[in-house]
Amino acid sequence: MFDGLAITHELWKFLHSHFVHAGLPLRAPAPSQVILFVTSQCNLRCPICRVSRRATSRNVLQVADYEAVLRDLAKLGVRYVSLTGGEPLMRTDLFDILKRVKDLGLTCHLNTNGALLHEREIGLIAALGVDGVTVGLDGPTAAVHDRVRGRQGVFAEALRAVTGLVAIRNKHGMPKQVGIGTTVLRWNLDQVPDIVDLGKRLGVDKVRVQPIDLASVPDCRLRDDVWMREEDYPLVDRVFSDLLRIRRQTGLITSSEGYLRISKEYFKGRLYRDIPCYAGYSTLVLDEEGNVFPCFAVGSVGNVRRDSVADIWFSDRFRAVRRDIAAGRCAKCWVSCHAEVSLLHHPRYALSTGLAMMRRKIFRRRNPDRV
Ligand code: SF4
Ligand code: SF4
């Protein structure tokens, strides 16, 4: 019964944001997902990362601030919160924040590079009931992953984290989902299917694939080194065809079919710009200083230290930013957390994405040992 109500509610929110995006004079629905960027600090210095180059903030939100914001978000109707950074585990109070999230009954996901996840942290994640954890893994071997992550030994640390999370999930059922997040770039393109295979052998529940995002890092010095060249296009085609096949056969890759197909064209510099974005319609981003964004490539729309998150979300300013996004006046990135939501709203991809989600659910029910 509750599930039915929750699904109907989410479906209504989905249609509602669709109408607002189309320009109907309606108030936006509550965001379906909130991304909490809890720190810009990181223990790694991945050469392709813009986050670790940000100045360290001195004015970060404290646990009490998060408690108030999370309560406001829950009142607004938000049910899903994803924590990211930087490396969230750089915060010594991370587990206090996670506790506040779970005390409010919100579904909670944590993104991490895994290097700071040891037995104690993994035990706390399970004990608090964190629903999902995604560990970044950009290579099936130390040679590739450590190159992308900028330090030797990170591959072993990420594997230790994934293994520990899978073991505790098998024992206690929490976190419900252990995943791998893979950024695809020229350095690892031919190895992405092997990363999925490694994930399968490690026992993860899902692998999310994300092409490197250079649209929001215009000053990336490694652009020519990490981006695909024309001579790579046949390999791009082959790898993404393989990923689509593996996705159909195993259900392990959670990136949607539409996302994978368009990612292939994205690497060749075409097509993806035709997908209208729903950042700021279905998603809200909050940084560690309290700034609110539709996404990180669009400027701040307000700050929760000055105004409530609801006042910011329903403000005239946010409405104007939404119109800019609907009109395509932004960096036009292809970041999966926003792009997947946008695909669900797109007439050409909504049905296949929705059907694939149902198919995956059925597959998981029939093959509990496979995912
Ligand atoms: S681990 Fe993540 S946040 Fe840290 S430097 Fe690498 S990409 Fe950036
Ligand atoms: S496409 Fe969407 S997520 Fe990307 S920069 Fe534009 S508004 Fe932000």
| Through-space gap between termini | 26 Å
Radius of gyration: 20 Å
Bin the helical content: 40-55%
Main sheet: strand order: 6-5-4-3-2-1-7-8-9
Number of strands: 9
Element-by-element helix/strand order: HEHEHEHEHHEHEHHHEEEHHHH
Shape: globular
The major sheet is characterized as: 9 strands, mixed
The small molecules bound here are: iron/sulfur cluster
Please characterize this protein's 3D structure.
The protein is α/β, with parallel strands linked by helices and 371 residues long. It contains 14 helices and nine strands. The protein has a nine-stranded mixed β-sheet with strand order 6-5-4-3-2-1-7-8-9. Strand 1, helix 2 and strand 2 form a beta-alpha-beta unit. Helix 4 packs parallel to helix 6 and helix 9 packs antiparallel against helix 10. The radius of gyration is 20 Å and the shape is globular. The protein starts with a helix and ends in a 5-residue tail after the last helix. The C terminus is likely disordered. It binds iron/sulfur cluster (2 copies). One iron/sulfur cluster binds next to loops.
